[in-house]
User: Fold Heptaprenyl diphosphate synthase component 1 from Paenibacillus radicis.
Amino acid sequence: MNYYRIPEMARKYIEYDMIQTHTELPQFPEFRTKLLYVFLSKHSTMSSYSELFSLVTALVQVGLDTHDMVSVTNQVKEMKAARSRQLKILAGDYFSSRFYYLLSHAGHIDLIRVISHAICEANRMKINMYQLMKQLKLTADDYVKRTVEIRTQLYLAFAGYMEESVNGAWPEILRLFTQCEVLLQEISSSETAQHFRESWGYWYVMQQANKDERKYLLSEEPDPSKIRSIWLKYKITWQLYQLLDASMRQLQDKLHSLDSKELSKELLSIGEPFIRYLSTPKVLEEI
Assistant:
């Protein structure tokens, strides 16, 4: 694989002093972007565009993720918080607009159409998921499945740009990597009560909890320490470790089954952070 430098290339579009000073941005979609770059690099004619295509897709994803961080209501009165909200909206629009500029200047008009369709599809999926959340009809399994589907939409749009020999493996490998990514982030968020309603743990507990616990979770301002005790009761973090371990094993099996041993080796190296995390003493104690 050629030297991977997409995060460095993206910095000049993402790292602005005003944004970094007044608001926070989502994580860079490292795993999905690196996967896309590796798969495109295998194409005999598309390999020369692997950096450009991976870069613009990452910028669009960062834009969408930045918009997702904007609070639903606009009732913020404190100036600092209001400025942060406004900058998230503007930054998300700016990041997303860069793909139009970069692809049009490179003459890839057809890809603009493909990515635009994927953006619409991802937003449609988000609306459906939010509706299920509002109606309390979402399960913990649905939460992971739908989150993964939303996060993979932009990258799945490149199925037609893959070399035929790897095209069939692309969707499943992308899904498994993204599932591991989602579960790893869920483990991190499970250790704090912040944004607990936007988590796998919340939907799992809503399925398993007794009437009083469910009522408490639905209250306006629940006590973080009480939420933490409920999470401990239902072993949320431990169960997420189990899910991540199972997903990683599925991913390894899939990668080992690839015909191309070179590709298998490259993809296994991308998944090493998951393996290292699951091998840490703290995680081994949990599991």
The chain has two domains: 1-164, 169-287. Residues 79-106 form the longest helix (28 residues). Residues 169-287 form one domain.
